[in-house]
Specification:
The chain is α+β, with helices and mostly antiparallel strands. Helix content is 29%, strand content 28%. It has helices at 15-27, 75-89, 103-110, and strands at residues 31-38, 43-55, 58-68, 95-97. Strands 1-2-3-4 form a four-stranded mixed β-sheet. Strand 3, helix 2 and strand 4 form a beta-alpha-beta unit. The model has no long low-confidence stretch (mean pLDDT 82).
Amino acid sequence: MVCNRLKEAKWNISEGEFLKYLLANIQGHRTIVLVALDSAKQKMEGCIVLTTINSLEGIFLWIDFCWVDKHKDNLGKELLEATEKIAKELGITRIAGRVTRGLEGAERKYGFKEDYRVIAKEV
């Protein structure tokens, strides 16, 4: 279910590659996947994929991927609250991630701020 939503995130990665990434990191206890389901409809309403990252600035939770059904207004906040709870339980004080659109929305709705920019180059 989670992999099926990649096309909406503007990622240049196949569902198969993402699934391999998830399986490897879940087995290594580095990745956590939270899924919100409507059990009556047996339909995913939202998900968030989190990976613990060790950096020079310490350990933080990286939001690899997040998707929420556009009709579920509060679900994004609920997933972020669950993410913050997990971070606190793990002793992590920082959550970061990338956005492919809507930086202003992430700032306004969820309290994120632009901290640094990521550059990339194909080789």
